[in-house]
Amino acid sequence: MPKNRRPTLTTGHSSSVTPEFEREGRVSGHVLKAVRRSVGHTQETMAERVGVDVTTLQGWESGRRPLMAVSTGQYLRLRHLLHRLGAGPHLLTQLDTALEADRFIGYVLGADHRIDLDGHPLATWVITRPFTDLVAWPFIGVAPTVIAEATPPVRRGPSASGPELGADASTSVRT
Fold first, then answer.
1. Radius of gyration for the alpha carbons in the chain, expressed in angstroms and rounded
2. In this predicted model, what pLDDT tens digit does every residue of 119-136 receive, in sequence order?
C-alpha cells in the first residue's frame, strides 16, 4: 500500500459511504436523555456544556440525529463530560451498548432479507444481556432496569417515553 493511502474498512457493502443501517438513533437517544436527566441537566444546560446547539442535543435524544453519526472524538468528549458531571458507569456503559443496539436495529429494519455475513452487525460481537434489553426496548416498551432506575419518569411535552418503531418499521420486522 502506498504511504499516502490510508487503510479503509470494508463493510461488505458496495457503497463507500456509511451504510444506511448505521444512521439509527432510537435507543441511544433515549439512553442519552436518561443519562442527562440523571446528572440533573436540562437540554439547554447540557447543550451549553457540550458546546452544541440545543437543537443538536434534541436531535440526538429524539433519534432524528443519530448519535452514532458524530465523530468518535466528539462522542468520547460527550461521554467524558457526562462522567465528570456524575453519570454512573453503568449508565455510560448502557450508552455504549445502545449504539450497538441502534446499529443492529437499523440493520434489521434496512435489510432486504438477504444475509450479508461480512457486514452483519452480529458477525463480530457476543450478544450480552444489556444489549438484548436495549434491542427489545422499542419492541416491548420496557426500559432496561439500569435506565428505568436512573431517572424517575418525567414527561414534558410530546416526547416519547422510550424508543419507538413506526408502523412501517414494525411491519417490516414482522414479515
1. 17
2. 676 776 777 888 888 888
User: Does a structural domain hold residue 153?
Assistant: yes
Q: How far apart, in whole angstroms, are the C-alpha atoms of residue 155 and residue 66?
A: 22
User: CA separation (Å) from 54 to 30, 44, 67, 90?
Assistant: 16, 6, 14, 25
Task: Compute the half-sphere exposure of residue 77: CA atoms within 13 Å on the CB side of its CA.
Answer: 11
How many folded domains does the chain comprise? 1
Q: How far apart are CA 32 and CA 19, in angstroms?
A: 23
52 contacts 70 by C-beta, under 8 angstroms: no
For residue 145, the number of C-alpha atoms closer than 13 Å in the C-beta half-sphere is 2
What length is written for the chain? 175
**Structural domain span for residue 153:** 20-174
Residue 157 domain flag? yes
Average pLDDT over residues 21-37: 85
Residue 45 confidence (pLDDT) above 80: yes
Condensed to tens digits (0 to 9), the pLDDT of residues 150-172 reads 766 666 666 677 787 765 554 44
**Average pLDDT value for residue range 71-86:** 94
